[in-house]
Amino acid sequence: MILSEDRLFPAEPTTRSIAKRLYSSLSVLPIISPHGHTNPRWFAENEPFPDPAQLFVTADHYVFRMLYSQGVPLVQLGIGAKSPQDPKGVWRIFAQHYYLFRGTPTRLWLDFAFQELFGLEARLTPANADECYDFIVEKLRTPAFLPRSLFERFRLEVLATTDSPLDSLAHHETIRASGLKGRINPTFRPDPVVDPDFPEFKENLGRLAQMTAADTCNWQGYLSALRQRRLEFKALGCTATDHGHPTAATADLSADSAARLFHKIASGGGDPDERELFRAQMLTEMAAMSLDDGLVMQIHPGSLRDHNARLFQRFGRDVGADIPTPTNYVQALRPLLDRFGNEPRLTIILFTLDESTYSRELAPLAGHYPCLRLGPAWWFHDSPEGMMRFREYTTETAGFYNTVGFNDDSRAFLSIPARHDVARRIDCSFLARLVTEHRIDEDEAHEIAADLAYGLARKAYRL
After folding, report:
1. 77 within 8 A of 84, measured Cβ to Cβ
2. What is d(CA 147, CA 156) in angstroms, rounded to the nearest whole number?
């Protein structure tokens, strides 16, 4: 076996035995993945995944950013090409550098997939790389490893993708007509048409106008177009929006001031402060729309995107060069909260890459405002240690029920069950400690564990 059945559980025997009892009670629960980035085309077309290199290396920025950090050129991994010219060669490079992932959550996710999904019985090494590659290739050619089959094998009840408002959603229409057991929902990610710094922002407004027949050259027409697209997403199962702004800044401008600002921004003008003000205003506008259409709002600021300018110029966006930055929430969110914070009909889920805000800002905010909930440890903190820190820093003020359980935020489809398994084990370990310290009873811990694994996500995302 690659993985121990006791992985991530406490070393102390009494606490470990409680954690194992809690974990065993979760085995019947399906997975809800309400925030992720898998490709809906996979499930619409239901074609075999091409090869292990594209499945595990080029599609997963956690993997190739680590390899790049140790001097492996991205071109050698097939990054920037439609498909690797030598996928087995990419796999061999991956196997040669597999030791780099020791101690990382990526190693847990990969080992889980190799053992639980493919049945490999030994750790990946340069010596067995070809054998493992060929074994996985044969599996991928079978019906059991088609995307829809894996979706059902993973016991996924809901899987949310992330989609641009400029997306036709044709793949989602195909999925809904396919008879798939479970739901694959789109998520409305408006960044291309609300962030003036997004590539081709002005052209994107024109495309939005074409899709909606709205006049996106004026403020009210622009807002109308966004409302229309949100409703079209909702008709295909969407329950949430997702906002990847660089900061958590919000604003509440008058209608006239907002219209003047929009005119300047839409015309290609605006200095950096004005572009930030526009993004801030759009978060408040999105909250207003959520009150009308019921979509849950997710805000995850604090990533300095594409920090490596040379890689951005060569390969474009999303090649593993995003870096966390300090983030303010208390003052930044206040304009939005002054307007909507006391609305129990509105749900805003906050994420952070700045762990210093957990106990100082986020838990107190979510522990007070009816509209706020805390998203789980995210991205760089989606790790056993990061998850445990999240529980330790937020539970004392926000409790469990102002959080939303776990979501995997993954582009790597095969890592989804592994990520949820890690989260369930860590939560059970945390709860077991509370039981041994006589802070909660074990029957309560069982209820909380089920809520963290399943119930809270289902409720928060209105599924």
Report:
1. yes
2. 12
Angle of helix 219-235 relative to helix 272-293, nearest 10 degrees, comes to 50
Phi, psi of 9 (to 5 degrees): -80, 155
Architecture of domain 48-145 in CATH?
Orthogonal Bundle (1.10)
Least Cα distance to 300 among 348, 253, 252 occurs for 348
CB atoms near residue 419 (< 10 Å): 23
Question: Residue 323: what are its φ and ψ, rounded to 5°?
Answer: -125, 135
* pLDDT number for residue 1: 66
Written as one letter, the residue type at 406 is F
Give pLDDT, residue 59.
85
From the centroid of its chain, how far is CA 367? 23
- Residues of the chain falling short of pLDDT 50: none
Residue 396 structure tokens:
């004392």
- Name the residue among 151, 225, 147 with its Cα closest to residue 188: 225
C-alpha distances (whole Å) from 91 to each of 69, 96, 114, 128, 231 are 17, 9, 14, 11, 43
pLDDT at site 293 = 98
Torsion of CA 247, 252, 255, 258, to 10 degrees: -20
The DSSP annotation for 250-306 comes to -----HHHHHHHHHHHHTT---HHHHHHHHHHHHHHHHHHHHHH--EEEE---EETT
All structural domains of the chain with their residue ranges = 13-47+147-460, 48-145
Domain 13-47+147-460 sits in which CATH superfamily? Metal-dependent hydrolases (3.20.20.140)
Q: State pTM to two decimals.
A: 0.96
Burial code (b: 16+ CB inside 10 Å, e: under 16) for 369-407 equals: bebbbbbbbbbebbbbebbbbbbebbbebbebebbbbbb
